What we know:
The chain has 172 residues and is of the alpha/beta class. The chain is 42% helix and 22% strand. Strands 1, 2, 3, 4, 5 and 6 form a 6-stranded mixed beta sheet that branches.
Amino acid sequence: xxxxxxxxxxxxxxxxxxxxxxxxxxxxxxxxxxxxxxxxxxxxxxxxxxxxxxxxxxxxxxxxxxxxxxxxxxxxxxxxxxxxxxxxxxxxxxxxxxxxxxxxxxxxxxxxxxxxxxxxxxxxxxxxxxxxxxxxxxxxxxxxxxxxxxxxxxxxxxxxxxxxxxxxxxxx
Length: 172
């Protein structure tokens, strides 16, 4: 199946999660296209979508939200998985999903959503971002759970293989 993996990432950590998911899907035999959400104009030729976003102050990035608004009809007609990245620290904070997740899950009838720990590198932040980090007392470090990310991607790959097998049976 042809899978679009598209990720809104301000500093690259969430994009790296998307890259890892894409790699697992490729190794499972799927064709994967990587694109920035703002560059996705159509879903023509795409069988499934994995859409991820960094979470800042409890919200998904604007480019991911705008892509959903722009392509909601097409997204709702394909298998879609969502992931969020952002919580940092031990234990991970903040807890809970980004504000948009419940409505996106219902609106797009997504197959699943996961929130993964993120990476916080203070050296790459602007003044406003540093102020928010100081306010919430976020801990610098890399909290991305690579084995969990790869396991989740393998579940997506398996689901896509089942979807493909169902489609073949319907054609016969």
